[in-house]
Amino acid sequence: MGQGSHEYHGYNTLANLPVEEFNMWIDHNHLTSLPSCGFQLTWINSRHGRARTDKRLGRVVYNSEGMDAWSMVFCCTFLYVS
Q1: Cut 0.85: pTM above it
Q2: Based on the structure, what is the number of domains in the chain?
Q3: How far apart are CA 79 and CA 55, in angstroms?
Q4: Cα 38 versus chain centre, distance
């Protein structure tokens, strides 16, 4: 799964070009995002109303060799409030 709008919540729209470029990089390098448990959105800017932004900043990607070497892998995310 690539990066997308489900990883952002805020009044302003998410810039599409960086998201598309990142997803193309993942595809071009034959990588896969490791699903995570914990918080879906990992950063909050501590503002209120329309100025508040929540985002997922961290991601773990791996290739097929990595998955072959590590049969049991998981990722748990934590929340950071700035």
Answers
A1: no
A2: 1
A3: 10
A4: 12
Rounded Cα distance, 18 and 62, in Å: 20
Divide the 82 residues of the chain into consecutive groups of 10 and give the mean pLDDT of each group: 65 77 91 83 86 84 84 78 68
Q: Mapping DSSP to helix (H, G, I), strand (E, B) and coil, where does residue 28 land? A: helix
Rounded distance, CA 38 to CA 9, Å?
Answer: 17
Residue 81 sits at φ, ψ, to 5 deg, of: -115, 120
From residue 17, alpha-carbon distances to 3, 4, 14, 20, 27 in Å are 11, 11, 9, 5, 15
Range of the domain at 49: 5-81
